[in-house]
Amino acid sequence: MIDVKLLRQDPAGVRAALLRREDDTVAAALDEILALDRRWRDRVTETEQLKAQRNAATEEVARRKRAREPTDELLASLKASSDRVKALDAHIRELDEQLQRQLLRIPNLPHASIPDGPAENNRTVRTWGSLPGFDFAPKPHWELGERLGILDLVRGAKLSGSGFPVFVGAGARLVRGLANFMLDLHTREHGYLEVAPPLVVNRTSLTGTGNLPKFEDDLYAVPREDLFLIPTAEVPVTNLHRDEILEGADLPRAFVAFTPCFRREAGAAGKDTRGLLRVHQFDKVELVRLTRPDDSEAEHQLLTGHAEAVLQRLELPYRVMELAAGDTGFSASRTYDLEVWAAGVGAWLECSSASTFTDFQARRANIRFRPAPGARPEFVHTLNASGVAFARTIAALLENNQAADGSVRIPAALASYVGTDRLAPD
RNA sequence: GGCGUGGUGGCCGAGUGGUUUAAGGCAGCGGUCUUGAAAACCGCCAAGGGGGAAACCCCUUCGUGAGUUCGAAUCUCACCCACGCCGCCA
Fold first, then answer.
1. What is the predicted pLDDT for the residue at A267?
2. How far does the CA of A58 sit from the C1' of B20, in Å?
3. Average pLDDT over every residue of A282-299
4. d(CA A198, CA A238)
5. Which residues contact A391 (CB under 8 A, 6 or more apart)?
6. What is the DSSP secondary-structure string of A209-254?
7. What is the rounded CA–CA span in Å between residue A418 and residue A172?
8. pLDDT for res A271
């Protein structure tokens, strides 16, 4: 959530920043919010004066009762002002609910340094590795996977629908190996605390990260319990310290979680969805950091590096893209996407998104810290990165390391986890 | 799912209608003392919001919401959550 005080103080600045997102509905919403806020504050001021008078009169009643003095005429007038306060409170509550409803739909302010405009303006920050060359036409991963007997898309569709892949045999072991490889890397070398969170969460948690109220259609729901399948471990892990005040000395906090992710991907059918390119369920190792505001920019670079380390150890060439304002997610202020090269489909595939959310999520989820013992609490900054998402990484692993005979080399860092350095057709 | 018990500040915990502007303790911060530290003693110490140039003033909050009352942490109702026992179950 954006800071409503900042909006009051500098409405033009906030408007200009949000317009960089290429979303023309925001300007009208800001006008409505400013008007609601003005009305709300006027009513609050008026009502609080009335309450102060009422409270003083109520104390006078108590005093007279103790002194055994008459109170009848006071009680009569108090009844009237008490009813008035109740009506005003109801109105204020209604205004406040409207205001909150609007505010929850306003995206985060884009970081000043990122490019303006739509995704075409995304900037390549750096690239790593060299693209593999082949003396034959490299195959896409769905062909390799089928031939190797490790990926069964047809039966997955039978069980659940398209976009629910089944990994079989060495494929399943590859998934398990990737999970252990990434968790070991982040816990042992990067200092993260491993957590195994719930895969189903409530509305409050999803509102905290910014998935609700605006993106309910992207989620799988469990209606009877009013719960939702997590679209990413970011949701449960970021919410771990919701409504808490952390000690400044305990920051930064760094969490890593391995979970499946569930996404409806409504409206995405058709394009770039073959094989593992866009699926409804995929595994992911997620990194989440809670930091002091002053540290968050440096932490963002550090976090991005931790995600990159995964691809480097897997010997997968990738590029780091800084997203333009119009392509940056609702809650994020700045995002680096890691795109891995996949030789079979001949495309860069997004397999990680490393973002800083500044205080946007912390404000929604009420995650605070005390800068020093005894000091006033402030909002933390939240950050997260995939470290990394499995489906597209597996696509790249298969496609980049394929041989003419259909076998696939497993990179050295992963081989011990998978139990072999080569997958071969029967 | 059934029955029972309970939800109070960063934490523990007292509190059955008006000196509760929430006792007391722990933790934290400042001080006295000390070569330094500990102990002891003294003081400070909830969060959010509104107004104000500031000093400061005011409002709200005892799980959530509704109700009774001039007045609710306290009484009534509904809901949520936690714990215990029973039932079901990996």
1. 64
2. 15
3. 95
4. 12
5. A165, A276, A277, A279, A282, A283
6. HT-TTTTGGGS-EEGGGTEEE-SSTHHHHHGGGTTEEEEGGGPSEE
7. 9
8. 64
- Identity of residue A35: A
Handedness of CA A302, A130, A337, A216 (dihedral sign): negative
Q: A221 pairs with which residues across the strands? A: A228
Rounded to whole angstroms, the distance from the CA of residue A291 to the C1' of nucleotide B31 is 33
pLDDT tens profile A199-236: 999 888 999 999 999 999 999 998 888 889 999 999 99
Gap between the Cα atoms of A104 and A208, Å rounded: 10
**Closest nucleotide to A4, Cα to C1':** B49
Instruction: Answer whether residue A66 shows pLDDT above 80.
Output: no
Residue A355 class from Cβ within 10 Å (0-12 exposed, 13-18 middle, 19+ buried)? Answer: buried
Active site residue: A20, A147, A253, A263, which one?
A: A263
CA distances from A382 to A49, A248, A298, A322, A370 (A): 39, 14, 13, 18, 15
The residues of the protein lying within 7 Å (CB) of strand B read: A 5, 41, 44-45, 48-49, 51-52, 54-58, 61-62, 65-66, 75, 78-79, 82, 90, 93, 245, 368, 373-374, 376-377
Residue A278 known to be catalytic: yes
Interatomic CA distance for residues A232 and A420, integer angstroms: 30
A278/A260 Cα distance (integer angstroms): 14
* Top-confidence residue, A115 or A226: A115
Between CA A180 and CA A119, with CA A228 as vertex, the angle to 5 degrees is 75
- A3 secondary structure, DSSP code: -
Is residue A355 within 8 A of residue A332, CB to CB? The reply is yes
Question: Does residue A268 surpass a pLDDT of 70?
Answer: no
CA A344, chain centre distance (Å):
30
